[in-house]
């Protein structure tokens, strides 16, 4: 809520800090006190003496300036760190490219100007994009590189056999989301149907109907797959044996 | 204990393996039998196959026999190892740019075992891509720039 002089402190003023005119403020304060019947003694405590206010304003300005300075310093430092990291990355890549240039030139008799890969200073990544050499990447800076530079691999000792760039003539591959070969069935001679045949489907429907019958009915547990011999006969409750039917349980 | 790893020699056989191996990681090593690094890798695969038999099935595939697959998986370097689970190609983030296959050989048997475990567990939890547990320093680095030349 606004202070007793009826305005928000800090209204106006570019730096957000104002000191309201003193006499006017005194009058307003006095009136406020009278109107709200506040204790006169409190007034002394609530009123911020002019000097104190001055001091506060100055301290605030100083703190603000200090803070801004610190922030700027921090940002400049971060920028410097990033530049340094980029520089180191570039140097690493240059060194790697150096090796590739000589390796590649040895493997294939590519006709290039000899000075292109004569030394690290020459095989530098171009500052502008227009210089082309077989070893340089298209864009300068680490954002243009496909592989993260890491010299550790050179010591790992694996020289992988290169079997050639895989041209697909527009068919696409795993990287472009083409249809995988195991899902492309052309020459398979067997039935193309997926899922059960029509007869199996009808049988399945019959079985579903059976499920609707009461579970406790007689013969629900009839095992249709059991084999019986030629001499099998239904159990008539000991007709061919002696005794009552219930005795045969 | 090691034994000879089974081989797949045609697209149809590879198809069948992908579609029929169930509830285990399918490991397909694409390469050539007498290539130096393939020999290294095959040795690791053979020696670990038995211990991993509950989780993985391993086959060797000669890249010359399956040009369709060699092209589909963009296999420019051998050996390249591709992983599947229940007919689904599993991707792994090794910290290298290509998540679709593992290129080169593993440094140790344990690296391969750990990787299979991670793929198996990830697949069981429904993940299609997992992060490799292998120390990035042990992942062979190769240069994609060759393709630009």
TrEMBL record, chain A:
Swiss-Prot/TrEMBL keywords: Coiled coil
Entry protein name: CCD84 protein
Region: Disordered, residue numbers: 1-23, 129-150, 166-193
Ranges in a coiled coil: 50-88
Taxonomy of the source species: Eukaryota, Metazoa, Chordata, Craniata, Vertebrata
InterPro entries: CCDC84-like
Native species: Oreocharis arfaki (tit berrypecker)
Pfam families on file: CCDC84
TrEMBL record, chain B:
A Pfam family per the record: DIM1
Family: Belongs to the DIM1 family.
UniProt xrefs under SUPFAM superfamilies: Thioredoxin-like (SSF52833)
Subcellular location: Nucleus
Biological-process GO terms, alphabetical: mRNA splicing, via spliceosome
Keywords, comma-separated and alphabetical: Cell cycle, mRNA processing, mRNA splicing, Nucleus
Transmembrane segment boundaries: none
Annotated CDD domains: DLP
The protein's name: Thioredoxin-like protein 4B
One cellular component (GO) term of this entry: spliceosomal complex
Keyword Oxidoreductase on entry: no
Function, as annotated: Essential role in pre-mRNA splicing. Required in cell cycle progression for S/G(2) transition.
PANTHER family: THIOREDOXIN-LIKE PROTEIN 4B, THIOREDOXIN-LIKE PROTEN 4A, 4B
Keyword Nucleus among record annotations: yes
Quaternary structure note: Homodimer. Interacts with the U5-102 kDa protein subunit of the spliceosome.
């Amino acid at each position: 809520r606004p202070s007793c002089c009826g305005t928000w402190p800090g209204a106006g003023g570019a730096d957000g800090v104002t000191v309201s005119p003193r006499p006017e403020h005194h009058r307003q304060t006095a009136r406020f006190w009278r109107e709200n019947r506040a204790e006169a003694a409190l007034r002394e405590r609530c009123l911020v003496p002019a000097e104190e206010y001055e001091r506060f304003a100055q301290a605030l300005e100083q703190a603000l300036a200090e803070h801004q300075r610190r922030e700027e310093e921090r940002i400049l430092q971060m920028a410097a760190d990033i530049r340094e990291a980029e520089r180191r990355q570039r140097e690493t890549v240059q060194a790697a490219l150096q090796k590739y240039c000589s390796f590649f030139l040895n493997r294939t008799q590519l006709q290039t100007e000899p000075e292109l890969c004569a030394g690290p200073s020459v095989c530098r990544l171009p500052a502008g994009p227009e210089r082309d050499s077989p070893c340089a990447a298209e864009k300068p800076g680490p954002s243009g590189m496909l592989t993260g530079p890491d010299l550790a691999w050179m010591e790992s000792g694996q020289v992988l056999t290169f079997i050639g760039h895989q041209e697909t003539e527009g068919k696409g591959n795993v990287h472009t989301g083409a249809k995988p070969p195991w899902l492309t069935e052309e020459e398979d001679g067997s039935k193309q149907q997926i899922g059960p045949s029509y007869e199996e489907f009808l049988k399945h429907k019959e079985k579903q109907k059976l499920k609707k019958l009461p579970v406790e009915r007689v013969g629900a547990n009839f095992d249709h797959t059991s084999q019986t011999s030629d001499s099998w006969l239904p159990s008539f409750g000991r007709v061919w044996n002696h005794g009552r039917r219930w005795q045969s349980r | 204990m090691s034994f000879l790893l089974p081989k797949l020699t045609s697209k149809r056989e590879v198809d069948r393996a992908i579609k029929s191996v169930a509830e285990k990681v399918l490991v397909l090593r694409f390469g050539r039998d007498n290539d130096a690094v393939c020999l290294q890798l095959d040795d690791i695969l053979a020696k670990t196959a038995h211990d991993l038999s509950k989780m993985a099935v391993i086959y060797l595939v000669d890249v010359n026999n399956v040009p369709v697959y060699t092209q589909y998986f963009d296999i420019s370097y051998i050996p390249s190892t591709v992983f599947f689970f229940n007919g689904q190609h599993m991707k792994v983030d090794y910290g290298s740019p290509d998540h679709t296959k593992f290129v080169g050989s593993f440094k140790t048997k344990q690296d391969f075992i750990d990787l299979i475990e991670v793929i198996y567990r990830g697949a069981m939890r429904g993940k299609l891509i997992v992060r490799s547990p292998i120390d990035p320093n042990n992942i062979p680095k190769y240069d994609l720039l060759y393709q630009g030349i």
